[in-house]
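#lab-general

N.A. 3:47 PM
ok so I finally got the sequence cleaned up, no stray characters, all 236 residues accounted for. can someone with queue access submit it? mine expired

B.Y. 3:52 PM
send it over

N.A. 3:53 PM
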Amino acid sequence: NVTLDAINSNTNVLVEKPIADTLENADIMIEAAEKAGVILMVGQIERFNPATTKMKEIIDSGLLGKIVSISTKRVGPYNPRIRDVGIILDLGVHDIDAIAYMYGSNATEVYAIAGKDIHSKEDHASIMLRFGDEQAGVVNVNWLTPHKVRKMEVIGVQGVGYLDYVDQTVTIHDAKWIRNAKVEKAEPLQKELEHFINCVEKGEQPLESGIDGKYALKVALSAIEASNNDSIIRID
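B.Y. 4:20 PM
back already:
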């Protein structure tokens, strides 16, 4: 309701992830923004991490060859302020979005194993994603690990890339070399806010649109369904 009130008053909106609680509400927000002619941006902060930008550049340059697998680990202790959702909607959406961003395409299938061993909602999950041309994505998240880890591994036929979101480092390994990429470190939240302001001033579409936000929500909800039903869910 807050988002719709802002949109209906012709205000550009930056909404925190996930974009909404349901796909239906996400559609309402997206359609309202399009009708009003305002920007609807979703706050997927890792897209604005300088290490993400560098890894995306490396992938798109072809340095690693064809990418066959991207896996992530986003684990750490439970934050008591998170009460309305489980680990998949809280943390999993970050990496669901990040993997699709790296591939430049959306997942077509999802399978997941999740459990709630300490908390009232799922507190650990392993999510398997299928992309086109025999490419995989693996998301591991939990609230059980006593220390914070935020990492990505990208496997290509010509090399492997390692990304650390916290340290903002990217390392590339191939058959002959280990190379540390030059990353200009910066605060991702600040870059996210600057990007939103820039889009508003120039009337440009944001890096993370409402459509992108809906995709991440759809995959996250499908992962929860897949875990509950022990089934593979097709993503249309």
